[in-house]
Design a protein that fits this description.
Layout: H1 2-19, H2 24-31, H3 36-43, E1 49-55, H4 58-74, E2 78-84, H5 87-93, E3 101-104, H6 110-120, E4 124-128, H7 134-142, E5 147-152, H8 166-174, E6 177-180, H9 183-191, E7 197-199, H10 203-213, H11 219-225, E8 229-236, H12 238-247, E9 255-261, H13 266-276, E10 280-282, E11 295-297, H14 304-307, E12 313-316, H15 328-331, E13 337-339, H16 347-354, E14 358-360, H17 364-375, H18 378-395, H19 398-408
Parallel strand pairs: 1-2, 1-4, 2-3, 4-5, 5-6, 6-7, 8-9, 8-12, 9-11, 10-11, 12-13, 13-14
Helix pairs in contact: 4-5, 4-10, 4-19, 6-7, 12-17
């Protein structure tokens, strides 16, 4: 099995090299790892104490950020070495002030893992959620370097718990400690004789709460909204945009609409603008004097989470594709949330649907009915705001539990 794993990793890396000839992200993945040994050796200063903090991508970084901040405060004498697997994380966070060094994690393998650890020499290592790499985990274990997994979640269907997954099961047994999101994950690990686990919850709750407390105003959005109500559709894909296009003409005139597509590409933005009609205008082209514009298309990255503070109603995209995007960024403001049918893999969505703070729809008609149902019952919206705010408050605190564990188990 170990040979099959190694061949699979090599084939994956080779496929990305081929893709790099015509794909920008793949090219970044490849170029970012060139001469990695000399890059790391020349950057690191001798005599430093270091903590390794690894995230697969930008999403995992946002999830783990509260823990990273807490580690920096709790271990001020240590330098933070932040690593990423994908360009979405590295390119966005290569200059992040929380990290002293930022690198791509070299492709997993017996030589790469040992050489990387030999160069970085971390006193401890943290991985966010899922990024399990056999040779790295084994090398940490062999070097007696504690390795922790943060905000992990486990399900019986995962390969670790199948009869053919013994090789992957060994990875779990080499991990120093798991900080998992829920009781089900703890029980599953216990059942498989993996006792080094604590239920701390999901650090994403800490992240969105922290962001909501330090939010900055967006004057352009305030100006666009004016005295109107605001419907925000975030992280939308084509399937979401098709049903939104059917809703917008019938939405009450006291509502304005902001659409934030998941992919900010010129061709897709132009197509979206055409779909939404003459009332739509791009953020980059919007003038504060154009108060008559009813639909605003955000054509840049990084604004969505802050825009939710102005939302009276939110639609989260992805539910007609592989799965919905982050709903907590909207829920932290108490905003009623609507999304498509693909949400069951997301604990927070499932729970908020149960508590009636969020709602799933499966068609344009379903979206229309739910939106009109909510906006014609203002008392119900007030109740939903209480439900969603309470849900966030009841689930935050994972970071403190993790740091307290580390204090008690140095």
């Amino acid at each position: 099995m170990i040979l099959l794993y190694l061949v699979s990793v090599k084939l994956y890396a080779f496929a990305i090299v081929i893709a790099s000839l015509f794909n920008k992200k793949a090219a970044q993945w490849v170029s970012g790892r060139k001469n990695w040994k000399s890059k790391i050796a020349s950057a690191l200063k001798p005599g430093e104490k270091r903590i390794l903090f690894h995230c697969a991508s930008f999403g995992e970084f946002e999830q783990g950020k509260p823990v990273l901040e807490a580690l920096k405060n709790h271990y001020p004498q240590h330098k933070i070495v932040l690593t990423f697997f994908s360009p979405s994380g590295f390119e966005n966070k290569k200059n992040d002030p929380l990290a002293d060094y930022v690198f791509y994690l070299p492709v997993d393998g017996p030589f790469n893992s040992k050489k990387f650890i030999e160069l970085v020499q971390p006193d401890m290592a943290f991985f966010v959620k899922y990024d399990f790499w056999h040779y790295y985990i084994k090398a940490f274990k062999d070097k007696k370097i504690p390795v922790y997994f943060v905000s992990s979640i486990f399900r019986p269907t995962q390969i670790f718990f199948q009869w053919y997954g013994k090789f992957f099961d060994k990875m779990l047994r080499r991990v120093t400690h798991f900080f998992v999101q829920n009781q089900g994950s703890l029980e599953l690990l216990y059942k498989n004789s993996i006792p080094q686990v604590t239920v701390t919850g999901d650090t994403r709750f800490d992240r969105v709460f922290e962001a909501s407390q330090s939010r900055k105003p967006l004057p352009e959005i305030e100006n666009f909204k004016g005295k109107h109500k605001l419907f925000v559709a975030g992280s939308t894909w084509s399937a979401d945009e098709q049903i939104l296009a059917g809703l917008i003409p019938d939405l009450e005139t006291d509502y304005k609409i902001i659409v934030v597509p998941h992919e900010i590409k010129e061709e897709k933005i132009n197509k979206l603008k055409s779909l939404l009609g003459n009332e739509a205008i791009r953020f980059s082209e919007w003038d504060k004097k154009q108060t008559s514009a009813r639909v605003l298309i955000i054509d840049n990255m990084g604004m969505l989470s802050a825009i939710y503070q102005y939302a009276d109603l939110a639609y989260i995209g992805g539910g007609f594709g592989k799965g919905i995007h982050n709903i907590l960024e909207a829920a932290v403001y108490g905003t009623p949330i609507i999304f498509g049918p693909k949400f069951k893999k997301f604990r927070e969505a499932d729970e908020l649907v149960h508590w009636k703070g969020a709602f799933s729809i499966n068609s344009e008609r379903g979206l229309r009915d739910k939106v009109f149902e909510l906006i014609h019952e203002p008392g119900r919206i007030d109740k939903i705001k209480e439900i969603n705010t309470r849900y966030i408050n009841n689930n935050k605190g994972a970071t403190d539990l993790i740091i307290n564990f580390l204090k008690m188990n140095p």
